[in-house]
Write a structure and sequence with these properties.
This protein is rod-shaped. The chain is built from 5 helices and no strands. The chain is mainly alpha-helical and about 140 residues long. Helix content is about 75%, strand content about 0%.
Length: about 140
């Protein structure tokens, strides 16, 4: 380490006296504390001066654990994407099937049922159609 680097490190230690308390043999925890207490610029300089790398504190076990977590999240995302696709397909079916019945009595091909059955069909149609429109709106908001 050059004299200039040593001076810069001393200056950082004077600016952040907490650095002398860091060093409990848990490098990852130490690095997290350093990052929290220091400005980004000072933290980068400290890493450079102490020959640390940002990611070097991760153990293989931690990397494996994170990899498993990423896989689990990916599987959950896939599962919910499938559920959304199935929901949209079901709603499309409701709209199509119920539209056919509504069209029949709107075009006087048959009388509207007086027992409320056609009213329920209209309600299912309106609900399914509204949900499809809302899903499309939400998808457009995300893009």
């Amino acid at each position: 380490m050059t004299q200039q680097d040593q001076n810069a490190l001393k200056k950082l230690k004077r600016k952040y006296p907490e650095l002398t308390r860091v060093g409990n043999n848990n490098k990852q925890q130490d690095q997290r504390r350093q990052k929290i207490m220091m400005s980004t610029e000072d933290y980068e300089l400290y890493l450079k001066l102490t020959n640390q790398k940002k990611g070097e504190m991760m153990s293989n076990q931690e990397i494996k654990s994170m990899s498993i977590e990423i896989d689990n999240l990916r599987n959950q995302l896939y599962k919910y994407h499938n559920i959304l696709d199935k929901t949209i397909n079901w709603l499309d079916g409701e709209v199509t099937e119920n539209q056919e019945v509504i069209d029949e009595y709107m075009k006087d091909e048959r009388p509207k049922c007086t027992d409320g059955t056609d009213d329920m069909i209209e309600g299912r149609y309106e609900c399914a159609n509204s949900l499809l429109e809302q899903i499309q709106k939400w998808e457009n908001e995300e893009n």
